[in-house]
Design goal:
Number of strands: 7
Oligomer: single chain
Number of helices: 4
CATH topology: Nuclear Transport Factor 2, Chain: A
Shape: globular
Radius of gyration: 18 Å
Structural class: alpha+beta
Largest sheet: 7 strands, mixed
Distance between the termini: 23 Å
């Protein structure tokens, strides 16, 4: 498919979705945005009980969290996982900061973030992809650490 044809198809799809009243963000996505704000706050909260209360507002009871170091199932397991991160001596003073807007479509979202050291310098960038239910509760987040890999050369 040529680039011109692909661009024309993309433009046509965008025009049709705009004319048909399809919104970039529906009510579940609006609620999911609030759920994500609570999720971001939970990574900064040192107290397990307070973190649990924050996550109850937006993390589905059986939601899953996966990154290169862990896979946890359920809200309580996420409370514990974040607590382990906060208590890890190597992570003292580290912060997780969202560095992009949040993109939504079809009950899915993605955003970029950075882990920063106590001096504010970036330790590693990352990206999270996730899903939410029709009530806007987060049901899944999958995180990737580090910059995107280089394109592999075809052999």
């Amino acid at each position: 498919m040529t680039k011109k044809l692909l661009a024309l198809l993309l433009f046509a799809a965008l025009a049709i979705s705009t004319q048909s009243g399809v919104k970039a963000e529906d009510s579940a996505a609006t609620t999911a945005r609030a759920s994500l704000e609570n999720y971001f706050k939970s990574w900064a909260e040192p107290d397990d009980a307070a973190r649990r209360k924050i996550l109850e507002a937006g993390w589905a009871e059986h939601g899953t969290y996966t990154d290169p170091t862990a896979h946890v199932e359920g809200r309580e397991a996420l409370v514990t996982h974040i607590g382990g991160f906060k208590k890890n001596a190597q992570m003292q003073g580290m912060t997780i900061v969202r560095t992009s807007g949040i993109q939504f479509h079809h009950n899915s979202f993605r955003f970029q973030w950075e882990m920063r050291g106590p001096d504010g310098k970036t330790i590693t960038p990352g990206i999270d992809y996730g899903e939410f239910d029709d009530k806007g509760m987060i049901t899944k987040i999958v995180g990737f650490f580090g910059p995107y890999p280089a394109i592999e050369e075809a052999k």
